[in-house]
């Protein structure tokens, strides 16, 4: 049987915690800063103000240990947080493992993923600054759904460029965004210069996250009282996700255990950072040793595992500042796997830095073995995971089997970043045996 470890509403974290503070203080090093592509000097706050809300730019560069969560945001978060932590008793039994497997369930948010956490903060600060519209891109649609709802809560308009292949393959996500009042355009679209350029070459262009980001940015620059919003990769986004790991830490304390292994799937790196950073801070402070952190990627888009550690653009049209990432190249177009949220050419600078420093590990899996793990999980725990999250499940199962083979008890914690109830097309394909 699975067991549920819950927190009271008043145990919702009051702050986000900032990994850069710990890196500077205990490692004496920080990830390299974003650069202006023309001057190759670090970008100043002023360069970014046309694109992002000022408070978020401040958070991007902050070296404070903690950043307070605004009361209005906490109120909205308390509608679904603290999220439950489960001990996967049934899965442990099926695997016949001495390992204890725990998972934090972010599918409990109203849009079904962790992305709601940062969407609320971003919408709040843009509204506070008097911005009227937020423009963004979305891959599989989870980020677009989260931002749509957050904009609705805070009275902002929302425009979403959705990667065309997902727009066609996952029409229900578009409906979700429309329900919350957002406008959704397939990307590449005929509404931007960059989109028109790509469509001229190929009117059936499948699109990519990098392209959709370029279109969103172009629209922000042309728009009035509009700003851009990103669902992963940047420091401030990873910062907002640390509510996940802070809650998980409290919940693990209630079990009397501390994880030996912490796992998250990794697209841009935000849900992995969310679960990992609060525990990593313990390690940097010297309070814990030997905790292993694993970021899990698809074989078809292994930016952290096989990417080059260098400065690269965050988008295809090369409009963003240069970010020091592990990258497959800003023109890389990954194959159209079902885990659309993991199809990004780069990874967050903070996550790339930690990997380079040897503080975290990474791992890749192919699509069929990931879906197989997802089905084992659904048939033991009942929850149908998002294909993205299933990457973390596959790694957790492998670690549990290794613990069994070595005859050692291990405490495994993974982040279940979202549910897969709008990803049934992928499951259908897998069950019918035609998934590559
Ligand atoms: C977007 C998404 C991801 C990947 O993004 P990260 O920034 O790496 O977390 C993973 N899981 C789900 C459910 C998502 O929606």
Strand fraction: 15-25%
Number of helices: 19
Architecture of the largest domain, according to CATH? Answer: 3-Layer(aba) Sandwich
- Side by side, the strands of the main sheet go 1-4-5-15-10-11-14
Number of E-type strands: 15
Count of all domains: 2
Which regions have little confidence, pLDDT < 50, spanning 5+ residues? none
Overall pLDDT, averaged? 96
Silhouette = globular
Rg measurement, Å: 20 Å
Structure in a nutshell:
It holds the Pfam family PALP. It is built from 19 helices and 15 strands.
Pick out its properties:
alpha/beta, L-serine hydro-lyase (adding indole, L-tryptophan-forming) activity, binds pyridoxal-5'-phosphate, aromatic amino acid biosynthesis, Rossmann fold, EC 4.2.1.20, pyridoxal phosphate binding
